[in-house]
Each structure stands twice: as structure tokens, then as C-alpha cells.
Amino acid sequence: MSNWKTLLLRIGEKGPEYGTSSDFKDHIETCFGVIRREIERSGDQVSPYLLQCAEQLPHKIPLYGTLIGLLNLENEDFVRKIVESVQANFQVALDSGNCNSIRILLRFMTSLLCSKVIQPASLIVVFETLLSSAATTVDEEKGNPSWQAQADFYVICILSSLPWGGAELAEQVPDEIERVLVGIQAYLSIRKHSSSSGLNFFLKGESENSPSEKDFVEDLWDRTQSLASSGWKLDSVPRPHLSFEAQLVAGKFHELRPIKCMEPPSPPSDLSRENIGKQKHDALMRYPQRIRRLNIFPANKTEDVQPIDRFVVEEYLLDVLLYLNGCRKECASYMANLPVPFRYEYLMAETLFSQILLLPQPPFKTLYYTLVIMDLCKALPGAFPAVVAGAVRALFEKISDLDMESRTRLILWFSHHLSNFQFIWPWEEWSYVLDLPKWAPKRVFVQEVLQREVRLSYWDKIKQSIENASALEELLPAKAAPAYRYSLEEGKEKTEEHQLSAELNRKVKEKQSARDMMSWIEETIYPVHGFEVTLTVVVQTLLEIGSKSFTHMVTVLERYGQVFGKLCPDNDKQVMLLSQVSAYWKNNAQMTAVAMDRMMGYRLVSNQAIVRWVFSPENVDQFHVSDQPWEILGNALNKTYNRISDLRKDISNITKNVLVAEKASANARAELEAAESKLSLVEGEPVLGENPGKMKRLKSTVEKTGEAEVSLRESLEAKEALLNRALSETEALLLLLFQSFSAVLKERLPEPAKARSMEDLKSEDENSSAMEVDSENGNPKKKSEIGEREQWCLSTLGYLTAFTRQYANEIWPHMEKLKLEVFSGEDVHPLFLQAIFSALQIPLQ
């Protein structure tokens, strides 16, 4: 990397590029001297790289802003081009709805104002344009209030830029900035309090539905007012331009051109709650709330930090996570060394966990946050590991109120995190969960973490890791041996089924084909023993052969999958097949999930068969004590929608290729026609057409391009047919899924008059006895917070919300059918609808 690039990239950091100095003023002066000379040689390279640094290292924006201010004193033309580029990029971001670019570029423009590069009045115009668009959007007569998320986002962008330039605006254009703040106050008075119950981490305590609880915009407005009342003084934003103020005042201001905001879609003609919900959902997907605060630590852990400083540090952390997601060690290094003068480990942990648990989905996979937390623990060994442990303990205490999807993510993160630190954890702190009933959320959490750890290591290693709380061994899964019915142990009676299994095993070793094996089964086993025995023998034997490893199992399914397919051609028999797989791998939840996933992948079982199996009585009773049924259901839904997504990508790519082929074919025909119309001499006589060799080549090209076009069109038609079929199957799958949820909930939910909210379910068990009886062994257990039936209902409703929220984009196109066949009717329980509607952002009233 060039020296000037390194200086730009590493400005403000401790490193060899700037010697021993860590003073921002020294860094800026050093960088300015090099960049000033470099502009003369390759200014067209400096400008885009400088902008890229400012956009992708936004916690250094004040440093880049000051540097540009100094360059403005010597090279106004260069800085004018930078300002024009920033404005052009900002308009492109507005037009495309690129939230991150809009937010960062507005912050950058505010910082350029501090360096006397941008005219304050023109920045005020940008603020007022955004504010005007926001006010129009939430106006019920002129706008579309369902798209309030867009309006809120514009106001958040204005407020979030003020910590970087509020003091300068108040000093240079006090009346104008006051007008903007009054406008924001007016906007807050006409917007609706943001209610997004389906996106909250906790069922209670973090509710944003209550008018007494401030939503994110209202909270940020309070923080900004507090900042303004303190004279716009804060600790978290460096102000290096003050060191060069005497020089910068001589710079020439550059004007910003007017901007244009993207208008929201028109409101639906039919203002049904489903249509309003669809538009609200679309708006939230387009303009998602960037952070939802967990507030899991006591206030005294961050009480020394101003409210606005907390917001700024959150912005820094989220920006670093966003722009450095491809290099985790660099990401952790920047997060550990933010340009703030106070400690922020608790705030950093809270922000990271808020991202891991963020609903409907975090910006990145959980694995990324796992690696960043691991690197931060290594970078800050004296402070951060203890803070992370404190966060886990705080979340554990609230686990009964945590959203089910967030809880699953926490289990996956925690088990993976421990695997990176030798599975060390003070389990004795949680050994009391054994005194709770088997359905208690804390007990289930510990059980699921231990089960996931076994997957990441091996049983004996995990048993050793809990030796300080050896009683927790009860929560470990059984050792992962398959439950093979036809083992040839001494003293065990050998039945005819044993002999059939041994014969089938021999045929596999002889590498007989699936067709030959199926003929033998149909002639020898099926007529004599019937379907159930036949299925049991085949499944037990083939799974036993493939039980040594994942590879063995995949090989067996690839080679003899046709046998399963021929035996179980319909959903009823496929449900029986899945029950046999579950019985064989009853001691190994991972292999059960993998086997079923592979079977669906090879189309040996359908997604509907998996849904029916998950909702069979044997699994329904496990909904609140094990994650296994939900994992298998989630895998099936995920694979279904991945297929649809893949088909859509294929269709998009083929459509592009068809256009290219059309153009190539048209060009080839035009070239042939032009050649045919030319006069050429053949043996001294004028003849139409060029020489025969060239004509032959052109005709061949026309044929080939025509064939390529036809082939691509046929491929496109085939893919579109597959997509239509997949969408039709999806509709049937969704109907079955929601009907299954409705049926099992109807059996167990209290009467609607007794339970119209989740809180009603929790209070349902208040008058129960002080002791509960564990149905598994009949022993009295310490009283849980709620009873087993209520916990079953809460868990099932929680997963219903989670699946609906996760696949909302695929559910909306089938909403009319679902409403007609599942969501309407007098017997539909209000809690069932509440769980679905909150996930889809449909208003309940």
C-alpha cells in the first residue's frame, strides 16, 4: 500500500506510521503535508480513497473533515470536487434507500461544516428537506402513515448528526438550527408512538407498546435536548478542527445543492389492517431500526456517561461492525480503541448482545459476533471476559421473558463461545436449575447449551467440564449410540426380523443395486410381514450401515434412497419413515436433524411430512422441554425457502443471459443480411453476397446464436415452471403449518375470556400449589414461575411468532388464503392471532 494511503487509513491510531505521537493535531499535520504533495501527482486517486476512508471508518470523520478543511485552504478546486462527490453519493443513497450511506454522509457533511468547508445555511436546507419529507409521510391526508419507519429514519439521521456539529450550527446559524429543532418537536407531536411488539427482546419489561415507554426516536430526541441544554458539549466526539481554527476561518465555503427525498408508496385503497400491516412491514424492512437496547446491566455501570455519549458510542460500535465485517481482528482492534476518553466495556457488551439477539434478524450471522467477542476477550483480557460473563448471567436471569428466537440464538452463541475457551464456566452457579421442573426456561436453557456443547466436542469432555456441578450430568444428552433393534448380542433372542435385517445387510455389502433390493423387499418381506415391519427392518438396517459418520449416512441415502422413496411415496408413510428415523437416533438429536434434512434434500420426504411429524403427539409434548422438534421444523422451512430463493436467482441470471443471447442473435442475423446484400465478383461476374467461405461462417454463427437463445428460453420456462410449482407447494405448506399450530394451541390454551394476552397466561398459574410434580419421575420439584401447561403455551406461541417473523416475506403473498382458511372464524383463539399479527406488524385492532 502506498505511503499516503497508509497515512490516511491509520490517522488517529497508535502505530509506526505516525511514530510515537498519538496527538490528533500531529497526525493531521503529517497527513496533510503528504496528501498536499500527492494531489499534485495523482489527485484523481486521492479523492475517492479519502471519501472511502471517511465512509467506511466513520468514527474518524472529524479527522478527515479537518484534513479536508486544511486542503481547502490550498486547493479549493480539489475540495469542491470532494463536496460534489459527497452530495452526489448522498442523493444516490436517498434514491436507493441505502440507510447506512445516508446516515454516514449526513454526518460527514456536518463535520465538513465544522471545518469551514460547507456553508451552514445549505446544510440547514438539507435538514429541512428531510424533515419536510418526514412530516408529509406521517400526514394522514397527504402522506402514508404506514411508512412512518422512513420518516423516523430521516429524523434520526438529522438528530444523529448533531453531536458532530451542533455546537457550530448553534454558533453560526442559531435561528436556523432552532427552527430545525422546533420542526422536529412538531414532527414528534404528529407521529404515532412506534409500537413493534413482534420485534421486542422481552415479553415484558422492554415493551415499546406502552405510551409511557419512549420509543427510539423519542429517546434520541430527549438525549439531543439534553445535549443542547449543556451547550452541545460531549466527550465522545473529538473536535480536532479547534486546533486549526485560526487557519480554517480563511477557507472558502462550498454550497450544497438542493436534495430530493424518495417518496413512500401511496397508501392502499383498502385500509384493512392486513394492507396496513403489509405496508408497515415493508417500511420496517426497508428502513430497519438499527439498534434495540437490551438494558441488561445496572445503571451504575454506565452512569458516568452522558445519554448522548452512550448513543455516539453505540454508533461507533455498529459502524465498525458494519464496515469491517470482513476482517474480524481489525474490527475487534478498532472496537477496543474508540476515540473516547471513558471506559465503555459494559456498553460494548450490551451493544454486541443487542445485535446477536436483534429481531427480525441481525445484520450478520451469529458466527461473526462470536468471533468478534472472542477477539475482544483476548484484546482486553483484564476487563471484557468478566463483562461478557456478567451479560450472560443477566440474560439468564431474564431467560423466561426472552423471545424464543433470541433465546435460540443465545444458546447457539453461548455454546460456541465456551467451545473457544475450553468449555470453562462456573456451572455450580446454575446447578439449582435441577430443582426446577423440567419445563422451566432456565433448566431448558442449561440443558440445550450442554447439548450443543456435546455437538461441538464429545460427551466425556463436556462431562469433565461440569465436574464442579456434577449433578448437571442429568441434563447431558444420552451418549450418542444408535438404538439398533437387530444387534446380534449374546443371549438376545433372534427373531425372523433379525434374519431379514442380516440378509439386507449382506445385500448392501455385496453392493446390490437399489432396484434389486427393492424387488427382494417386495417379494420377500412386504407380502409376509406387512408395511410396518418392512419399514422398520429397512430403516433400522440401512441407518445402522450409515451410522459410523455423516459421510457414511450420506452415501447410504444416495445409494439406497430410492428404496425409501418407493416404500414411502405419500405423506402418511413418510411420517412413519420419519418416526423410524427418530427412533433409531433417539440418543442423538444432531444425527436425527441431519438425517431428516438430507432426506428432504434428496426428496425422500416432503416438507409437509416433516410438519406433520413435528406436530405428531410424540413431539407436541416436547415443545416446551426440548428444542429438537423446532430445530427440525426450522431446517425444513429454511430448505424450502432456500429452494425458492435459488430458483429466483437462477431465473434472474437466465433472464439476463436471454437478453445477451437475443442481442447476439440479432447482431448475427444483421451481419448475415448485410453480407447477403453486398455485390461481389465471382469469376469476374457480379453476384449478390460475399465470398462463400464467409457466408458459410456467418450462417453457422446465426444458427449457433439462434440455438443458444432457444436453449436459454427453454431453460427459463423450465425454471419458471419449477418456481410456480414451488410457490404452490409453499402455499399448501403454510396452510398446514398454521393449521397445525392452531389445532395444538386450541387444545391447550385457556378460554379466550381468561387469557387475552401473554401476561394473562403468566398469571394463570398464580394460585397453584407451592410444589410442582415433575411428570417425568413423579418427584416434587421446586415451584416454577408458571405451570407446565402455561409454559407449553408460551413456548409454542413464541415459536409461532418466531417462524412467522422469519418467513414474513414469503407469507405475505399467501395472506388472503391464510386469512380465509386459518385466521378467521369464531373458534380462532385471540392469542394465536396476536402471535402471528405481532410478527407481521398487523395492528390488532
**What is the count of DSSP helices, taking H or I runs of 4+ residues?**
34
Biggest pleated sheet: 2 strands, antiparallel
What CATH calls the topology of the largest domain is Serine Threonine Protein Phosphatase 5, Tetratricopeptide repeat
CATH class of the largest domain: Mainly Alpha
End-to-end distance: 60 Å
Assign an overall shape. Answer: globular
Our Rg estimate from Cα atoms comes to: 33 Å
The percent range for helix content is 55-70%
CATH architecture of the largest domain: Alpha Horseshoe
Quantity of strands, as a count: 4
What share of the residues does DSSP label as strand, in percent? under 5%
Q: Main sheet: which strands, in order across?
A: 1-2
SSE-based structural type: mainly alpha
- Poorly predicted regions are 205-211, 766-773, 775-780
Average residue-wise pLDDT? 91
The domain tally reads: 3
Description:
By secondary structure, the chain is mainly alpha-helical. The protein folds into 3 domains: 4-201 and 213-286, Serine Threonine Protein Phosphatase 5, Tetratricopeptide repeat, CATH 1.25.40.180; 299-475, Serine Threonine Protein Phosphatase 5, Tetratricopeptide repeat (Alpha Horseshoe), CATH 1.25.40.180; 642-678 and 692-761 and 780-840, no CATH class. The chain has 34 helices and 4 strands. The strands form 2 sheets. It has a two-stranded antiparallel sheet with strand order 1-2. A hairpin with a 6-residue loop joins β3 (771-773) and β4. The two termini are 60 Å apart.
